[in-house]
C-alpha cells in the first residue's frame, strides 16, 4: 500500500477526537466562523471554491444542523462574517468578501439566522474573530457576548480550519488563560463542522507568491494546532440530557 502524504501526517501527528454531548444546562454558545459566500459558494469570488467541494458542503450541513438546535433552544449563537473595506486588503490573499457584496453574506443555507433573536452577527476585517471583535473604544463584543450569556462551553465551526477558525481559537484560549473570559471553561472545535480550501502544490508551483494549501492536510493540521492550544476536538456533537463536558 502506498501511503499518501496526508496519511503519513495523520500517523505522525494524530488528533484524538471525542464524542461531545452538550447538556441542557451546559451554558453553551455556538460560534460560526465565516460561513459566507466568498469562501463557500461555488464561483462567488477570488477565494470561493471553483467547483463543488465535499468538505465545505459537509461543513455547511453540520453547521446548519447545530445552528437549528441552538436556535430551537434559544441558546446564544455568534456568527463572524469576513467583511473588508476595498482599500484595506488582507495580505497575502487577493481581494475578497468586500463589505456590501454578497461574498460577505452568510451562505443561503444559513441566511435565516439573520432573523433569529438569539443570534449576534459580527462583521470582522481580519482573520481572527477575537481581534475583529474589538470596537474603537477598546471593548470587545465577543468577550461581552461570553459574559452576558454566561457561556461555559464554546462550540466552534466554520472555515478555514487552519486560518480563521484556528486564529480565533488560539486567541480565545490565551484570553481565557489570562482570565478575560470567565465563566468560559471549554472550547470545542467540531471537526466535521469545519473545512478549509484546496490549492494543491501542483497548482501553487506555477503561481507566484501563493502558498500551496492541500485541503485534507491543512484541515488536519488546523485541528492539531487547535488541540495543541487546549481545545477539545469533537468528531460528533449531540445535545442530550447527560452532558459529558
Ligand atoms: Zn478576509
Automatic annotation (TrEMBL):
Residues 30-199 form the Isochorismatase-like domain. InterPro entries: Isochorismatase-like_dom, Isochorismatase-like_sf, NIC1. It comes from the Eukaryota. Transmembrane segments: none annotated. Gene3D superfamilies: Isochorismatase-like. PANTHER family: OS02G0606800 PROTEIN, PTHR47297. Belongs to the isochorismatase family. This is Isochorismatase-like domain-containing protein.
Amino acid at each position: 500500500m502506498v501511503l499518501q502524504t496526508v496519511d503519513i501526517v495523520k500517523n505522525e501527528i494524530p488528533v484524538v477526537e471525542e464524542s461531545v454531548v452538550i447538556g441542557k444546562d451546559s451554558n453553551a454558545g455556538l460560534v460560526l466562523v465565516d460561513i459566507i459566500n466568498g469562501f463557500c459558494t461555488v464561483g462567488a469570488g477570488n477565494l470561493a471554491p471553483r467547483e463543488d467541494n465535499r468538505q465545505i458542503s459537509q461543513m455547511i450541513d453540520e453547521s446548519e444542523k447545530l445552528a437549528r438546535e441552538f436556535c430551537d433552544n434559544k441558546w446564544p449563537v455568534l456568527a463572524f462574517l469576513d467583511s473588508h473595506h476595498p482599500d484595506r486588503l488582507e495580505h497575502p490573499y487577493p481581494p475578497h468578501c468586500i463589505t456590501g457584496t454578497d461574498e460577505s453574506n452568510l451562505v443561503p443555507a444559513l441566511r435565516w439566522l439573520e432573523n433569529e433573536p438569539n443570534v449576534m452577527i459580527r462583521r470582522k476585517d481580519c482573520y481572527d474573530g477575537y481581534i475583529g471583535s474589538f470596537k474603537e473604544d477598546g471593548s470587545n463584543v465577543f468577550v461581552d457576548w461570553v459574559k452576558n450569556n454566561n457561556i461555559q462551553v464554546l462550540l466552534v465551526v466554520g472555515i478555514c480550519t487552519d486560518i480563521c477558525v484556528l486564529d480565533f481559537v488560539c486567541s480565545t484560549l490565551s484570553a481565557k488563560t489570562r482570565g478575560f473570559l470567565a465563566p468560559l471553561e471549554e472550547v470545542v472545535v467540531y471537526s466535521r463542522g469545519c473545512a478549509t480550501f484546496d490549492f494543491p502544490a501542483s497548482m501553487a508551483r506555477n503561481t507566484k507568491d501563493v502558498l500551496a494549501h492541500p485541503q485534507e492536510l491543512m484541515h488536519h493540521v488546523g485541528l492539531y494546532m487547535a488541540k495543541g492550544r487546549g481545545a477539545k476536538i469533537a468528531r460528533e456533537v449531540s445535545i442530550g440530557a447527560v452532558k459529558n463536558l
